[in-house]
Amino acid sequence: MSWLTRFRNALRPEPLETELEDEFQEHLEQRAKRLETKGLSPEEARREAALRFGNSTLIRERSRDIRLWLGLETGLQDLRYGWRALRRNPVFAITAILSLSLAIGANTAIYSVVDAAILRKLPVPDPDSLIYLATPPIQQPGSETSDENTSFNYPVFNSFREAAGDSARLAGVGFPGRAEISDSAPGAPIEKVTRAYVSGEFFQVFGVTPALGRLFTAAEDKVPGGHPVMVLSYDFWQRRFHGDPGVINRTLLHDKTLYTIVGVAREGFFGNEPSRFVDIWVPTMMYQKEAFTNDRWQWMRITGRLGPGTTREQLAARFQPVLSQSNENRLKRMTTVPDVVRKQILEMKIFVQSGARGVSTFRRTFARPLWVVLCVAAAILLIACANVASLLLARASARAAEMAMRISLGAARLRLVRQLLTESLMLAGLAGVAGWLIARLAAPAVVAMLATPGDPYRFALEMDSRVLLFCALISALATLLFGMLPAWQASGTQPMQVLRGAASHGGRLRLGRLFVSVQVAFAFCLVMAGACFLFSLRNLRAVDAGFDPHQLALFSISNEVPAQEKAPKSNLMIQMRDRMAALSGVQAAAVAPWVVLEGSTWTDQIFLPGKSPSDREEIFYPVSSGYINTMRMRMLAGRDFTPREANNDPVVATVVNMAFVRRYFNSEDPEAALDKSFQRSSQPSMVTHRIVGVVSDSHYSSLRKAPVPIVYMPAEGSSYYTLHVRSNLDLPSLTRLVEREAAAVGSGTRLREVTTLDTLVGNTLLRERLLAVIGGTFALLGLVLAAIGLFGLLNYSVARRTREIGIRSALGAQRGEIVMLVGKDLAGMVGGGLLTGLVASLGLMTLVRSLLFGIRTVDPLVIGSATAVFSLVALMAGAFPAGRAAAVDPVVALRGE
């Protein structure tokens, strides 16, 4: 009989039963007829035929087993019985499914983000042959060690491209950034998009084909400014143009240039950085012209595809002489480079890294926190499994009679284990479906916590087969974790003891205590982790930034000066600042080319008269006069520079901070630096600075790092700058004032972006906020699950010991003594779990130390807070069972026995 027929019979056993009955009757009738021919009466013939046929029930069962898929049939029986069992006890089912679904959903959500950001390969042909180039970063003396550097200049990219030959095909990719586009019609609305400059080989290197039109080629990336063409991403084409095929050859205004749309990239391709979905690609030659000749402009990544038979090591050996020669030539023109930096540049190595998963700054920043969060989510799963196992053990006592009856009727122990595991699998399956739905909502929420309006992160978070398989695997793992031991314990029921009413619950109770202790240990680890992350965030927020970020609005301004107008950019910039400072409701205003905490920096070497050049480069920050006052930084000595003091004066008036004074004048007295002069390197000659003021230290790039020396100097005119406005007006009203003054200044002055310094400070805490929010949420969930486990087991223990408690009460035990009896059980379970969890937590803290701020490995405040919170929750969980035990009436208890 074919397996397909057996499979059909297992799914639909009724026709098989009918068929077997018909065959059985046919055999009996044939035998009876043969016996009738020998002289027997019909009744005697049928009786004799049945006797000679044998055990009809056994024959039916054997015939039935041959004609169907027995394992499938018993599995379906187990499923039907398990479903009825869950429906009979909905409170248990809902509690177990809710606990597991939250744990499975949390794990699946975090894994989907980890998969999209860290694990998944780029959706291109043969991603394993992709590469990208990197070098070790230049380390300033005393600075923190950083990751690899992936920024290169255009001249060295050209040299690498020539040196690669047939060994590899390279492409240059600018860092994806926010840009503005609009239709070519005057007054058309402006839209923010993510743009990337790419060389002509880019799409061919990645094997990308067009969904519409064509992709630009190497020939369109030869002449600076020569080919203003644009390729759209499929997602942006659908979002912005609703999939209109007529978009080809339309023009869009971008960066004061009309670009022609020549094509749309295929669906699913977003670029080579998984965390940033590019909307538009334009040729590198449309970037600023100086970027193609100035080897100090590190503005592009170099990616590529290995040729047949070429290894990454072989390619690195080809590129190393090219990099070394380029660095030597660059150092010849940079005569004032610190010796430490010069040595690093001369000894710099080139690394050819695998580009299968793309290049991602997000991955370098958030990979470790995301792995930590995934481990925390795994702890939640273990707690939920231990919780459900405890519930199953308590439920098993109510099913003891059922198990005893099954065993008495001949059921094998393994058969009972399979039945109970099937019920557990149903719980995990239903929880897995619910967890899948939770993950679909939670994963985008996790990404939203990391994104900012000016720096949005986007990921391909569709729940694909990889995420579905992960969800299924952890559901199956959960089944084994919470189902196996309770099933084995329940299947070992002794029928005679149950039938005599003397079943032993001691083993089940000990196993339940073990599960609860496991819950307590893992939950305490979560509470410790949550406390660490919350205190770390609190410590960072309490850091004195050195300036007042409140009520300080930041406006990104552009001065796109027409060629026929002669107004210098510096005049337009100062006019804008002066007009805003004079408005009612504005307390102070200043301008700077960029904003602190955004990552932009300009560094140069310091030369003090009569001393050796500094061994490092310091930050030079060009700002307008009034910046110190606008930021509310404390002037410790001297004065601010005036509007008449310019950057191009023979001697530049300069304000420095106290970190500068300590490092270069070895003094804690700000007066020690006043009127002192120093020089900085500037081609073709040195520039002299005179210190006119000293301000307090402030954080420049991160609140986590200690303040570093900063030199504040008068700002020159710029096409793009940030207007700092301190005002008690609300942001929309202030924005309207800025727009009005920008229109009054004219000459192409336009408001581009609006934010606040409070927002920027908050953006620097994204990683800490992610860990604090998710760690705190998981800690709360772990506490709830542990409390449920404690409550359930204590309640079961009180019910089991009702006769004992009744006897104690009858012999004179007071209510307080009964409560202490339950408290002793509670202390035994919680104490062991807390001790184990504390030891494990201290070990884990050493692994996440780099993610914490102001937290010691053994921090009394963290340990004390976590212990106090957990103890309070444990007492709350034990309060009801203790009250129930104290309220036991000895007469009722003994009469019930």
From TrEMBL:
**Positions of the MacB-like periplasmic core domain:** 95-320
Q: Which UniProt keywords apply?
A: Cell membrane, Membrane, Transmembrane, Transmembrane helix
Q: Which GO terms describe its cellular component?
A: plasma membrane
Note the topology in the membrane.
Multi-pass membrane protein
Q: What is its main location?
A: membrane
Q: Any idea where this protein resides?
A: Cell membrane
Q: Which InterPro entries match?
A: ABC3_permease_C, ADOP, MacB_PCD, Macrolide_Exporter_MacB, Perm_prefix_1
Task: Name all ABC3 transporter permease C-terminal domain ranges.
Answer: 376-495, 777-887
User: Which molecular function GO terms apply here?
Assistant: transmembrane transporter activity
**Transmembrane spans:** 91-114, 370-394, 467-490, 511-537, 770-794, 826-848, 860-880
Family indicated by similarity = Belongs to the ABC-4 integral membrane protein family.
Please give the name of this protein.
ABC transporter permease
Organism this protein belongs to: Paludibaculum fermentans
